[in-house]
């Protein structure tokens, strides 16, 4: 015992505000404990001490607070430097470390939530939520990719959407982190599958915009490469001079603001690379687009007088080159699209709820409703047809074989009845747990629920009846069930009833209890809050969200760099005259 105890004692060499050897139990001591001990020996407050080990400041109030010194790599003869900081500096450092830790946790949550959402919605599995995430083109039509590419594209798009949210909040460092994750996700796609997709070039532009807003000149070389890739990608997706894109947009100039930002950033990179003529060319083109995008008050007022909101009217005019008739047509079409999307969302939500009733296939896929309709049209009962498809992994022919085979058909019916009973039992258990959580005694709750009725009826009985009454009700209920079972047992020649299923072994029926969708554990593991934020952000957008840029900041930046160019020209002329 004693040798084991002495082995855990380590001598640390401390220098700085206090110098000497300090004996600690590295397995049990944490950073706050070490800081407190050194601060006490230094006759200082803990907030006035910084501890440095292996070139790294040891943090308080983070995940390291719960880590032992040994877990941080501190062992016998390790050197610890104790530095003095002012109380205010100490508080500032502590707050910075807390903020950094919180930021890292949030970014990790975003990555985890996006990964979980993508996996659930990319592989045809039954969604846990009451919504579905689909890939659409600029006209709102669904597009199809292989399962691998679909997963990568969904992940990339969700991360891009989260990054743009940070950009709107002026949180450009966080935006860069998330956009980098998005870029990694897109890199997993087959290049041929996404060469005509413009999301990747737009992501590159957004990343360079973050560099610019952070005023980080160190990124200038990388920014130039990203903008080159972005321009090449947009030309592939939109056609030369955006010809293909404008054809799809009925001749509108919806892409103008995006290209303004691209040319501004190209001008900035050229300026800082010493290519002043090239910079001037890009900035002049960007400024021309900026003037084109300014919405006249008269046009805005006229469109708004037709019943449209200011934000919608401005957007439509910007994307229609200030043409009032074209803007109104655009708004009418967009309103129809929103209405259609609302109806589609309601229909899809109802479909998901229906699919959840049928359970999932052995490979965790939802029952294919289109194939279900086909089987039902032949004349089979819907729930039975759904069970046949579920069991046979949505293989229509195998499902029909089971439906037309008397023995297999009977097994399907038993599966359905057993699932209904399990669902009913889960509902009963949930009711019991809810009432128990309200403070009612479990035995009384079970009696009230077994007596029958809804949650409200059971609660009413618990509140209005005495303990004895509830117990009697439970006993009567049990006796009633017992007599029913005995009556069935005394009539061996009678046809089988639902109660016969009570004694069936699910394994004997080839039923997997996991076929009813995600388990409670899977649902509990979800980061519902973060997934909700991402889903809400996706729902806010539409096919043209990436092109909807206010350009006010871009206008200021254009003027700033044109002034810098003018100043450089003036300096050059002055030097030439001398």
TrEMBL record:
Domain UBA: 294-334, 366-406, 422-465
Span of domain Ubiquitin-like: 30-80
Name this polypeptide is given: NEDD8 ultimate buster 1-like
UniProt source species: Populus euphratica
Region (Disordered): 477-497
Gene3D superfamilies, per database record: DNA helicase RuvA subunit, C-terminal domain (1.10.8.10), Phosphatidylinositol 3-kinase Catalytic Subunit, Chain A, domain 1 (3.10.20.90)
Annotated GO MF terms: polyubiquitin modification-dependent protein binding
GO biological process: regulation of ubiquitin-dependent protein catabolic process
Top-level taxon of origin: Eukaryota
InterPro entries: NUB1, UBA, UBA-like_sf, Ubiquitin-like_dom, Ubiquitin-like_domsf
Pfam families reported for this sequence: UBA (PF00627)
Biased composition (Polar residues): 477-491
SUPFAM superfamilies: UBA-like, Ubiquitin-like
């Amino acid at each position: 015992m004693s040798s084991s105890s002495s082995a855990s004692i380590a001598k640390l060499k401390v220098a700085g505000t206090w110098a000497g050897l300090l004996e600690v139990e590295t397995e049990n001591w944490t950073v706050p404990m070490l800081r407190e001990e050194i601060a006490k020996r230094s006759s200082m407050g803990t907030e006035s001490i910084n501890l440095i080990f292996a070139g790294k400041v040891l943090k308080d109030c983070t995940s390291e607070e719960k880590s032992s010194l040994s877990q941080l790599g501190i062992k016998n003869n390790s050197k610890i430097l104790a530095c003095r900081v002012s109380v205010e500096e100490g508080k500032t450092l502590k707050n910075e470390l807390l903020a950094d830790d919180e930021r890292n946790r949030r970014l990790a949550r975003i990555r985890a939530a996006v990964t979980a959402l993508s996996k659930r919605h990319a592989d045809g599995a039954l969604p846990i939520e009451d919504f579905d995430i689909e890939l659409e083109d600029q006209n709102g039509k669904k597009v199809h990719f292989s399962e691998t590419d679909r997963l990568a594209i969904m992940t990339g798009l969700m991360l891009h959407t989260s990054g743009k949210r940070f950009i709107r909040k002026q949180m450009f460092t966080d935006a860069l982190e998330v956009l980098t994750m998005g870029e990694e996700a897109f890199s997993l796609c087959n290049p041929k599958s996404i060469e005509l997709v413009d999301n990747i070039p737009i992501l590159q532009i957004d990343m360079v915009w973050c560099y610019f807003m952070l005023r980080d000149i160190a990124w200038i070389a990388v920014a130039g490469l990203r903008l080159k890739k972005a321009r090449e990608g947009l030309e592939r997706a939109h056609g030369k001079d955006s010809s293909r894109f404008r054809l799809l947009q009925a001749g509108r100039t919806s892409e103008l603001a995006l290209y303004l930002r691209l040319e501004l950033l190209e001008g900035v990179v050229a300026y800082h690379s010493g290519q002043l003529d090239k910079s001037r060319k890009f900035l002049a083109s960007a400024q021309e687009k900026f003037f084109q995008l300014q919405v006249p008050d008269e046009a805005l007022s006229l469109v708004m007088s037709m019943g449209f909101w200011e934000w919608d009217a401005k957007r439509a005019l910007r994307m229609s080159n200030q043409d009032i008739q074209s803007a109104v047509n655009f708004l009418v079409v967009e309103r129809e699209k929103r209405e259609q999307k609302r109806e589609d969302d309601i229909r899809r939500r109802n479909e998901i709820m229906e699919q959840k009733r049928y359970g999932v296939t052995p490979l965790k896929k939802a029952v294919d409703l289109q194939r279900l309709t086909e089987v039902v049209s032949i004349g089979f009962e819907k729930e039975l047809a759904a069970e046949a498809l579920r069991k046979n992994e949505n293989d229509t022919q195998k499902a029909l074989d089971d439906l037309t085979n008397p023995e297999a058909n009977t097994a399907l019916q038993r599966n359905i009845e057993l699932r209904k009973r399990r669902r009913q039992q889960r509902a009963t258990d949930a009711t019991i747990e809810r009432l128990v959580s309200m403070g009612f005694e479990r035995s009384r709750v079970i009696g009230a629920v077994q007596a029958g009725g809804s949650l409200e009826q059971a609660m009413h009985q618990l509140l209005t009846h005495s303990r004895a009454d509830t117990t009697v009700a439970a006993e009567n209920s049990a006796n009633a069930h017992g007599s029913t079972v005995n009556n069935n047992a005394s009539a061996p020649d009678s046809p089988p009833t639902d109660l016969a299923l009570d004694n069936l072994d699910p394994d004997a029926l080839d039923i997997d209890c996991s076929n009813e969708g995600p388990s409670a554990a899977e649902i509990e593991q979800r980061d519902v809050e973060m997934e909700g934020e991402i889903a809400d952000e996706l729902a806010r957008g539409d096919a043209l969200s990436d092109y909807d840029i206010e350009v006010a900041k871009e206008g200021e930046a254009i003027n700033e760099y044109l002034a810098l160019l003018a100043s450089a020209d003036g300096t050059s002329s002055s030097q030439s005259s001398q």
